[in-house]
Specification:
The strands form two sheets. This protein has a five-stranded mixed beta sheet with strand order 3-4-5-7-6, with helices on one face. The N terminus is likely disordered. Helix 5 packs antiparallel against helix 7. It has about 400 residues and is α+β, with helices and mostly antiparallel strands. The protein contains eleven helices and seven strands. The two termini are about 30 Å apart. The protein folds into three domains: about 40 residues, no CATH class; about 140 residues, no CATH class; about 160 residues, Heat Shock Protein 90 (2-Layer Sandwich).
């Protein structure tokens, strides 16, 4: 499927297409609707010159009047009034002609030529009107040779300066339009990238949640099959844990405090399953409790520590989960276990890769996951990021 996007003002008659899937189509619908309305709706009244344009024209008129006063041999005030009137009429022609749709116009004729032509056609009429007003009547005007020569000179100057200023203004408008188009497309691109990123996060989280739930249920099943007296308490804790965890599986506002509560509940369950082989400690700095954090991400590392560190070890071990923030506001979270370590376990799998992807999606590409082997055995996984960074 393709979404067609017109990314230029009415003057530019070219289209570009963006091949994409359903995600781009859905997320860009409102933006495309806005662009369509902006480019197809016509104003109820013709556009009028803006104050900035009027100010520029007044300054140019003042300069032209000051330079040409000796040529006309007239008072400066009269030349200034006449020049200002002609310039304002030409500005009005330039502005109004910019709103014309002109669907009948051949495609090979550029729109800028239409605007310059409108200015040049109206310049003689504006000059004629000014000189007739000075003469008092049209008959007086045609009888005065000095007014006729002045009219010719004014018309030539108006055509020269008017077309020159019009071309410069059109080029400036084109640059502003291109800049605005780039900004609009950049905003759309950022919005689409955010939607794609959110979709990736949902996919990654969907891979993590069943992974954790099935493994925990398998542990409970093993206790039941072994006839352990801890089966009922573990199941009780699991039910309580799931009641607390399920509303947070897709919670975009999850905090580290929420995550540590889930980690604590999970480790309590694992401790009941192997009380002699698993000990744990939680050490989170109080100032980090309210920090926004991807739901279930830290829990995934804890589960990996149990599965790949403590479970394979005949002696068991201790799991420590903590977090701190240094003077540069860099946050370091860690999950350390004194189990078998990296050498005797499989290479980092999907769970760790998903955690890294989610961490970078929330805190930017500088966020990282570091692995450190402990002495004499064990593994420490660190999540390092700046909480103020954006993806």
């Amino acid at each position: 499927m393709q979404v067609w996007l017109r990314h230029s003002a009415p003057e530019n008659r070219h289209w570009s297409h963006i091949p994409t899937g359903w995600l781009v189509q859905n997320t860009s619908y409102s933006y495309l609707s806005f662009m369509k309305t902006a480019h197809t709706s016509s104003p109820r009244w013709p556009a009028l010159p803006r104050l900035r344009q009027i100010a520029v024209v007044l300054i140019i008129s003042l300069l032209i009047a000051w330079v040409t006063t000796p040529v006309f041999q007239s008072p400066f005030s009269l030349v200034l009034k006449r020049t200002t009137f002609i310039a304002m009429v030409m500005l009005l022609a330039f502005t109004v002609s910019g709103t014309w749709r002109l669907q009948w116009l051949p495609r090979w004729i550029p729109r800028w030529l239409v605007r310059v032509t409108a200015v040049c056609l109206l310049a003689p009429f504006a000059s004629l009107t000014a000189y007739v007003a000075i003469a008092g009547s049209f008959m007086n005007f045609i009888r005065a040779n000095n007014l006729l020569s002045g009219f010719a000179t004014s018309t030539i100057l108006a055509l020269f300066f008017g077309s020159l200023v019009a071309v410069a203004a059109i080029k400036r408008e084109d640059k502003q339009r291109e800049r605005a188009d780039r900004l609009q497309l950049e905003l759309e691109k950022n919005a689409l990238e955010r939607e794609v990123l959110d979709a990736r996060l949902r996919l990654l989280q969907a891979q993590i949640e069943p992974h954790f739930l099935f493994n925990t249920l398998a542990n409970v099943q093993a206790l039941v099959e072994a006839g352990s007296e801890n089966a009922a308490p573990v199941l009780h804790h699991l039910i309580a844990y799931l009641r607390a965890a399920m509303p947070r599986l897709n919670d975009a506002d999850a905090t580290l405090e929420n995550e540590m509560q889930l980690v604590s509940a999970y480790l309590e369950i694992m401790h009941m399953r192997m009380p002699d082989r698993l000990q744990f400690a939680l050490r989170l700095a109080p100032e980090l409790k309210g920090l926004r954090f991807p739901a279930m991400a830290l829990l995934t590392l804890v589960e990996n520590a149990v599965r790949h560190g403590i479970d394979p070890s005949t002696e068991g071990g201790t799991i420590e989960v903590g977090g701190k923030q240094d003077t540069n506001n860099i946050v370091t979270l860690w999950v350390a276990d004194t189990g078998t370590g990296m050498a005797e376990t499989a290479a980092p799998g999907t769970g760790l890769a998903n955690v890294k992807a989610r961490l970078q999606a929330c805190f930017g590409k500088d966020a990282r996951v570091d692995l450190h082997e402990l002495t004499p055995h064990g593994l420490r996984v660190e999540l390092i990021f700046h909480p103020g960074a954006k993806a």
